[in-house]
């Protein structure tokens, strides 16, 4: 499968994301924020970083980049889209996912290996995991606190759309320990921790993140 | 020329860590009796033409679409006199 990774001005993890896509057995395609051509990709990753310097609000300016018009349209037709960290913020600003991400409640940037539970495994990004799998993935954010109003949180829980939840300490004040969510259809997933930094033993806390990049093939070929 | 001011504030129920940081600093500087601080953003927008209801609506649309995130923020728009 061809997986596009968008580079915005200020993206940091686009290189690692393309590498993780490749290690996951797919073809990585570099996409550019200013170009609305998705170059025939089958899925899109919005990587981490500080796109547009996090000016105004994280993801608020990126959301209106030309490439996002195409990503939003494709996501509506079912294309798998994964937003990691800044990518998650962009998906919320795009209204592809509900809620918002605000500054960590303790006001400090956090960078650590984080334990998570993978709770939704019927998405194209998580089907490689067993339901309830406990994994360790890198987390690094300053504005990773997931917030939404109570009815929205109840709906996310009730519809099984919490994809990943923090275990042990909640690192950023996210409501209900939510680390990642999906849209109703499940093709759009936002995740605050960074699975692309946990795909090789040499450079990460292990390979627990690899599943996010190997899930695509099995999901698509099964459907 | 018309000038409008858009004030954007975090919703009351949303945690405001920046405001909390300022609140924590004020007593250390000798400012006693401060019970709360909320931090927001102010935009000053200048447009061609004279102030009108249509321009006000235009600025309101900007605030809804880009300047604020309705999930976490409220906004207010008001016209400001432009000195000749």
TrEMBL record, chain A:
Record's subcellular location: Cytoplasm
State the coiled-coil residue ranges: none
Whether rRNA processing counts among this entry's keywords is no
On the tree of life, the source organism's domain of life is Bacteria
Which pathway does the UniProt entry assign to this protein?
Answer: Purine metabolism; IMP biosynthesis via de novo pathway; 5-amino-1-(5-phospho-D-ribosyl)imidazole from N(2)-formyl-N(1)-(5-phospho-D-ribosyl)glycinamide: step 1/2
User: What catalytic reaction does the record list?
Assistant: N(2)-formyl-N(1)-(5-phospho-beta-D-ribosyl)glycinamide + L-glutamine + ATP + H2O = 2-formamido-N(1)-(5-O-phospho-beta-D-ribosyl)acetamidine + L-glutamate + ADP + phosphate + H(+); L-glutamine + H2O = L-glutamate + NH4(+)
Keyword annotations for this protein, in alphabetical order, are:
ATP-binding, Cytoplasm, Glutamine amidotransferase, Hydrolase, Ligase, Nucleotide-binding, Purine biosynthesis
Q: Where is the signal peptide?
A: none
Residues annotated as catalytic: 85 (nucleophile), 194, 196
SUPFAM superfamilies in alphabetical order: Class I glutamine amidotransferase-like
Write the Enzyme Commission number(s) for this entry.
6.3.5.3, 3.5.1.2
* HAMAP family on file: PurQ
How is the subunit organization of this protein annotated in UniProt? Answer: Part of the FGAM synthase complex composed of 1 PurL, 1 PurQ and 2 PurS subunits.
Q: Main role?
A: Part of the phosphoribosylformylglycinamidine synthase complex involved in the purines biosynthetic pathway. Catalyzes the ATP-dependent conversion of formylglycinamide ribonucleotide (FGAR) and glutamine to yield formylglycinamidine ribonucleotide (FGAM) and glutamate. The FGAM synthase complex is composed of three subunits. PurQ produces an ammonia molecule by converting glutamine to glutamate. PurL transfers the ammonia molecule to FGAR to form FGAM in an ATP-dependent manner.
What NCBIfam families does the entry give? FGAM_synth_I, PRK03619.1
Q: What is this protein called?
A: Phosphoribosylformylglycinamidine synthase subunit PurQ
- Origin species: Nocardioides baculatus
From TrEMBL, chain B:
Q: Which residues cross the membrane?
A: none
Q: What class of enzyme is it?
A: ligase
Query: Is Aminoacyl-tRNA synthetase there in the keyword field?
Result: no
Q: Name one Pfam family in it.
A: PurS
Cell compartment(s), UniProt: Cytoplasm
MF (Gene Ontology): phosphoribosylformylglycinamidine synthase activity
Q: Which domain of life does the UniProt lineage start with?
A: Bacteria
- Name the pathway: Purine metabolism; IMP biosynthesis via de novo pathway; 5-amino-1-(5-phospho-D-ribosyl)imidazole from N(2)-formyl-N(1)-(5-phospho-D-ribosyl)glycinamide: step 1/2
Do the record's keywords include Coiled coil? no
The entry's keywords = ATP-binding, Cytoplasm, Ligase, Nucleotide-binding, Purine biosynthesis
Q: What EC number(s) does the entry state? A: 6.3.5.3
Reaction(s) catalysed by this chain, per the record, are: N(2)-formyl-N(1)-(5-phospho-beta-D-ribosyl)glycinamide + L-glutamine + ATP + H2O = 2-formamido-N(1)-(5-O-phospho-beta-D-ribosyl)acetamidine + L-glutamate + ADP + phosphate + H(+)
What does the record note on quaternary structure? Answer: Part of the FGAM synthase complex composed of 1 PurL, 1 PurQ and 2 PurS subunits.
User: What is the purpose of this protein?
Assistant: Part of the phosphoribosylformylglycinamidine synthase complex involved in the purines biosynthetic pathway. Catalyzes the ATP-dependent conversion of formylglycinamide ribonucleotide (FGAR) and glutamine to yield formylglycinamidine ribonucleotide (FGAM) and glutamate. The FGAM synthase complex is composed of three subunits. PurQ produces an ammonia molecule by converting glutamine to glutamate. PurL transfers the ammonia molecule to FGAR to form FGAM in an ATP-dependent manner.
Family according to the record: Belongs to the PurS family.
Q: What is this protein called?
A: Phosphoribosylformylglycinamidine synthase subunit PurS
Gene symbol of the encoding locus? purS
